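debug: dumping io for the single-chain case to check the tokenizer round-trip. Nothing else runs in this session.
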Amino acid sequence: MKTAAAYIRVSTDDQTEYSPSSQLEKIREYAKRNDYILPDEYIFIDEGISGRTTKRPAFNKMIGTAKTIPKPFDAILLWKFSRFARNREDSIVYKSMLRKQCGIEVISISENIGDDKMSVIMEAMIEAMDEYYSINLGEEVRRGMNEKVQRGEPVTIPSFGYDIQNGQYIPNPETSPLVKKIFTDFLDGKGLVTIARELNENGYRTRRGNKFENRTVRYILKNPVYIGKIRWTPTGKANHRISNKDTVIIDGTHEPIISQEIFDKVQEKLSKGSVKYMHEISAKEPFMLQGLVRCSACGATLCMSANHTSLQCYAYAHGKCNISHSISLKKINALVIQTMDRCIETSSFHLEITSKTKPDENIPLRIARENKKLERIKDAYENGVYTLDEYKKSRDNVQNKINGLEEKFRTQQSEQTDEQVEMEKFRDKLIPVMPSLKTPAVPESMKNSILKSFVRRIVFDRSKCDVEIFFYT
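debug: decoded output
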């Protein structure tokens, strides 16, 4: 008896004909008729996701599972080929990989194409029609959205400060005053980071439930929806820092929250600030600890401040972290060197050991899977599917695999290097590079490369004025 997986996908909630439960019911019936075992752990479901993309969690998990050795199942059962993919290129690549590399067939239970040479042509024709349907549907949707935009009607979820009722944006009584405050505070001289931090400290969150940061505030300040406009880019997401010729901005039918006069003043001030910001970005220079130091409060990287003499938590600088971790470059460089010297002196490191041949961490899971196979084989024998000889043969094959995996796991365990011995070896490798890190003659970029060859991360705690270094080898 063969083992199968099931892949189920629906694009929208209203596709009742292809609902997950109805697809699974038909797949189970097919599996039973064709002597397939369909374990629950091999049922993969993506809901509300288009088949024109492979950014599907369950799909990717299924492909990853299929590539394990030994192969976990013999076939992937689908309601229709369109559930697998609506992009011919993706379909060809993944089906070919599954068949040639994994020995796994992809079967549509409702599209009987046979197994002769004509089936190749039939399958290609079905996939081409599925892709045509998907492209045509997308064009029809965009055409409908464009017509709504031309009438000044919304085609996207409402921006922060608005709700949507009966296909119309209406100001939200709780968040629309915040939008007005953001515009007023900015004109009164508050920076984007300060505005974001104040919103976060008062418990406010974006429409998606995230904390505010400087770019969130900037997006609100540049959004013409607040002066009664509708903005839409039919070709995809717009980058609002760069002019996009495809973006449509048209008078809407909703109530403005901000006056045209205030909006124009804000745009002028933002434009002047952007020039200064871009100048500061272009003036950045490499430094020894670049990309290595993390904030102890939130885990974000410490980046160069505008003065180019100190580091600050990236999240704090963008309004998302409430604790400043500002420290001068000179001071944190000295702190890191002192800590490394202390580690060398005591031969004590936070050491994360890596190797070219990493141990197989999936062995316990693979053993568990094989034990489940033993249970299914036993069930098949008790139900009369297997003869006694077939049962013994299948059982012995699986048991041999289990024995081999257990032996491999024991070998891996015995090969683990003694931690203290590894630290002594690491200490001996570290000592010769310390002079290069301490001398001003070595460029900062080279020091950074040296550190990144054995330092995973450095955690800076401002309250203790201390660093914790995590090394790897």
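debug: round-trip ok. The radius of gyration is 30 Å.
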